[in-house]
Specification:
Blueprint: E1 11-15, H1 20-31, E2 35-42, H2 49-61, E3 65-70, H3 104-118, E4 123-125, H4 141-154, H5 156-159, E5 165-167, H6 175-184, H7 209-221
Parallel strand pairs: 1-2, 1-4, 2-3, 4-5
Helix pairs in contact: 6-7
Pathway: Purine metabolism; 7-cyano-7-deazaguanine biosynthesis
Family: Belongs to the QueC family.
Keywords: ATP-binding, Ligase, Metal-binding, Nucleotide-binding, Queuosine biosynthesis, Zinc
């Protein structure tokens, strides 16, 4: 990572899951001159390896702060990521998959904006992607723009005309584009974790939607993905 943090840079809060997209978004925030304040949400997902990856990414990027909060969405269920439901491995389909977590980005962005307001940060970064993705409705550009207006109306800093800007720098990128950005920024893909259903020995399964999309992106970009896959 080439960008250097300065004591004088303004803060930005990055929703950092520990996945590839959020890692690249965090690095882009630093490259743009922001001091990185990372927020990671442990929501009871089965792929908790992401949390460890988020902590490692924060250290490697030199973040100013990192908060991990617990929000157990297993109480709601309704998703293969939080419930006793098998993660599909047949390939990416056309319908919204069972790995969709109800209103996850709506909930997470609300928490991220609240955290940003407490930090007096007027910039929030999220690594959503609306091209090569699993079809989740809360990754679409119209959702992000709508939420930005909601945040303006529902916060003190928005009412005082010091609103928050929602940055989604990967929104219109393919996974190959994101792989290229990862390489350009000097990031090791293996720092991040994308798999929904790790193997017993701790490898990425290689067959879930997230693994398939990630592997396809790096293959199309002709860039090595240093992640260890079971298949």
């Amino acid at each position: 990572m080439n960008a250097k943090l300065s004591e004088n840079t303004k803060p930005a809060v990055v929703l950092l899951s520990g996945g590839l997209d959020s890692m690249v978004s965090a690095a882009l925030a630093i490259e743009q001159g922001f001091a990185l304040h990372a927020l990671t949400i442990n929501y009871g997902q089965r792929h908790v390896r992401e949390i460890d990856s988020a902590r490692a990414i924060v250290k490697r990027l030199g973040a100013k702060a990192h908060s991990v909060i617990d929000l157990d969405l297993r109480a709601f269920g309704g998703s293969a990521l939080t419930d006793d439901v098998e993660v599909p491995k047949e390939g990416v389909g056309q319908d919204i998959p069972v790995t969709y977590v109800p209103a996850r980005n709506l909930v997470f962005l609300s928490l991220t904006v609240a955290y940003a307001e407490a930090k007096d940060a007027h910039d929030v970064f999220i690594g959503v992607n609306a091209l090569d993705y699993s079809g989740y409705p809360d990754c679409r550009p119209e959702f992000i723009s709508s939420f930005a207006e909601t945040a303006r109306l529902g916060t003190k800093m928005g009412v005082e005309d010091r609103g928050v800007q929602i940055h989604a720098p990967l929104q219109h990128m393919t996974k190959a584009d994101i792989a290229h950005e990862c390489a350009r920024l000097g990031l090791d893909p293996a720092w991040s974790w994308s798999c929904y259903d790790p193997s017993p020995d701790g490898q990425a399964c290689g067959l879930c939607d997230s693994c398939r999309l990630r592997k396809k992106g790096f293959a199309e970009a002709k860039i090595e993905d240093t992640t260890q896959y079971a298949a």
